[in-house]
Design goal:
The chain has 2 domains: about 180 residues, Rossmann fold (3-Layer(aba) Sandwich), CATH 3.40.50; about 120 residues, Heat Shock Protein 90 (2-Layer Sandwich). It is about 35% helix and about 25% strand. It has 10 helices and 13 strands. A hairpin with a 2-residue loop joins strand 12 and strand 13.
Length: about 325
């Protein structure tokens, strides 16, 4: 394979810095075999292990690991990673709590991409897979990301080679020759977002007009049958993003609101530029004055999409109406 270089003894190496590895497998049997071996290696080395995969695969791995399953931290990726913007925060919390034990390393399995992802979720999951290299550069962690060759499009596999410096295919380990370096990853993300078919509401944002904006979002969300708790969530998320835009961005700032594929979508845009690629993806430190808005939006919403262009920034949040 022209995109991989192999090295003798590669599988036995464990760099002191972050190791982010794609595992290419075909079918459930190979998934269980490869990932359970990875988990057992971690347990035998005294490393805390987090398995972040979709629910049915948790059940498969727990059965395979038997009594060892109780030594693993489990989380359902379909819940935790429904919005891929949350996943780095989960890993950071895990590393912060568990790194420093025997050997100092932690390891985990994370499968953020599966065949059921929507097109928008897929793009954001792929962005996450690149950004995690930046978020954990130098960290004492090893993360394995499984990709199912039997169910994923070839373009998805190609992108995995670009976001993972290490790869395993057919039981052989190697280095990806087309991996993006950190300089490319940290540049502002400017892939265009699709325009809505129909905009239901649009308004110019001002500090004095934030209460009007909140009432507008609340009214529209209620009309579409959103439950009260979720109405509160999207009001808080949009208010935080709009406030950030007005305080830290550049005028003009605006709000658009529409529905698509069973989701309520709110978009805040301004003429400023967000240059921090990890904005909103990690929990702000206690006492930190800024950084809460986008992080809260990621925790509250089913999907957050942020794009920064030379002429401005766009942040879209989605909440499912169903």
């Amino acid at each position: 394979m022209g995109v991989v270089s192999f090295a003798p003894g590669f599988a036995e190496t464990f760099p002191d810095s972050f190791r982010h590895e794609a595992l290419f497998y075909s079918g459930t049997g190979e998934f269980v075999e490869r990932t359970s071996a990875f988990i057992r290696d971690g347990i035998d080395s005294g490393e805390p292990v987090l398995a972040l995969v979709v629910g049915p695969k948790i059940d498969l791995l727990r059965r395979e690991l038997s009594s060892d399953a109780d030594r693993v931290f489990w989380a359902d990726m379909a819940e935790v990673g429904r919005n891929p913007g949350r996943i780095i925060s989960v890993w950071r919390d895990f590393v912060a709590v568990h790194a420093g034990g025997r050997g100092g390393h932690v390891r985990g399995i994370g499968e953020p991409i599966w065949a059921g992802r929507t097109a928008d979720e897929l793009v954001e999951s792929q962005r996450y897979e690149s950004l995690i290299n930046l978020a954990f550069a130098g960290a004492p962690a090893r993360m394995l990301c499984p990709y199912d060759l039997a169910s994923l499009d070839a373009s998805v596999i190609d992108e995995a080679y670009r976001s993972h410096p290490f790869v395993t295919a057919g039981g052989v380990d190697g280095y990806s020759q087309i991996y993006r370096d950190l300089g490319e990853i940290e540049r502002p993300f400017d892939d265009p977002l699709a325009e809505p078919v129909e905009t239901l509401e649009e308004m110019t944002l001002t500090i004095d007009g934030l209460a009007t904006m909140r009432r507008l979002v609340s009214s529209r969300a209620a009309e579409f049958g959103l439950k009260l708790r979720r109405i509160a969530d999207i009001i808080l998320a949009v208010n935080e993003i709009a406030t950030n835009s007005l305080r830290h961005g550049r005028e003009p700032a605006s709000l658009r609101l529409w529905t698509s594929n069973g989701d309520l979508i709110c978009e805040v845009s301004d003429a400023g530029c967000i240059e921090e690629p990890l904005a909103g993806r990690h929990r702000p430190a206690p006492g930190q004055d800024a950084g809460y808005g986008l992080w809260l939006a990621n925790q509250l919403c089913d999907l957050v999409q942020m794009r920064s262009f030379p002429n401005g920034t766009v942040v879209r949040v989605r909440i499912a109406l169903r």
